[in-house]
Please model this.
Amino acid sequence: MRDVVESLGRASFSPLLMVPALLVVTPASGIPFFSTICGVSIALISFQMIAHRRHVWLPKWIMRRHANRNRIAKGLDWLTPPARWLDRITHERLCPLVEPPLLIVPQLICLAAGAMMPVLELVPFTSSILGFAVSILAVAMVTRDGLLVIVGLSAIATAFAVGNYFLM
Model:
């Protein structure tokens, strides 16, 4: 794991941000504290991204993990169709939204979304909307697609509107 993270460098942040974001989109977000764990993970990864770390920091026990070549090959085979689909629908557009100085905006929004997930866990499945939005923003940062930043912001606004409606 250490070799993968260090070789990817700054490019490791967005893909790792997608992992907890996509997990919270699943029905598992209904499990008590699952959204909180995913939200804290999203916030920590986003914070490291904002802090301009060279690569994401992970606990030593995760960095020492090894994977079987066959498992990695099977995982890559499983990821190939969604990756091809993303390649077809994403393009470099509205690039100023995913380049400095505006790149900080989606990064801060991911941090805020992760920090809000523990609070929004009180409203069932609201965290799933935030996870969907963070996933979109992570894809936007990887593919340099500013249009996806706008879509992600719309999903964030929806999550806060729904959460505000039910919490008030």
Summary: Residues 146-167 form the longest helix (22 residues). Residues 104 and 143 are 16 Å apart (CA to CA). Helices lie at 2-8, 13-25, 34-50, 60-63, 69-89, 104-120, 126-143, 146-167.
